Amino acid sequence: MGEPARTRHSHEARLRAVRLVCEAGWRAADVATALGCSVRSVQLWIERSDRGTNPAALTARKPPGASPKLSDAQRTRLAELLDAGPEAAGLAGQLWTGPRVAALIEREFGVAHSSKYLPELLRRLGRSPQKPAKRAVEWDEEAIAGWVRTDWPRKKKSVGGSAPPSSGTRRPGS
What we know:
Region (Disordered): 150-174
Protein name: Winged helix-turn helix domain-containing protein
Distance between the termini: 59 Å
Domain Winged helix-turn helix: 93-149
InterPro entries: Homeodomain-like_sf, Winged_HTH_dom
Helix content: 40-55%
């Protein structure tokens, strides 16, 4: 059996754990088993609360990191704009690249968003950044298909042929 899954415990659960150890005399290991948490968590709660004298120290803390730059409503609107496609936003082509999404966010919401963090934002919206195919402007599918159909078979016959191997070629085992 593996370790119990990590969960966030409520303020009440942390208070109860500290009281059981400090007032009722339970062992930290027994409290941890009863709450489904680690012994170290119970020990930290006891230390943080100054052995139960400062219960306010056990309140949940705000997660670390910066606050999101876009509100929930703005993220919903961004998802709608992405669904409509780049052409609806006045951009040529069918791909949403990182710089395009960053420009859209700045234009629509007035928020400068680093393209470094866009993949995370897009993943939260159920999308991913897309990379354009790198092709020359002169790329002509019809001309390429015609060359493959007519010229390539001729070139293939004349290049390989049935010439004997060069003197430098060795076969395995010889």
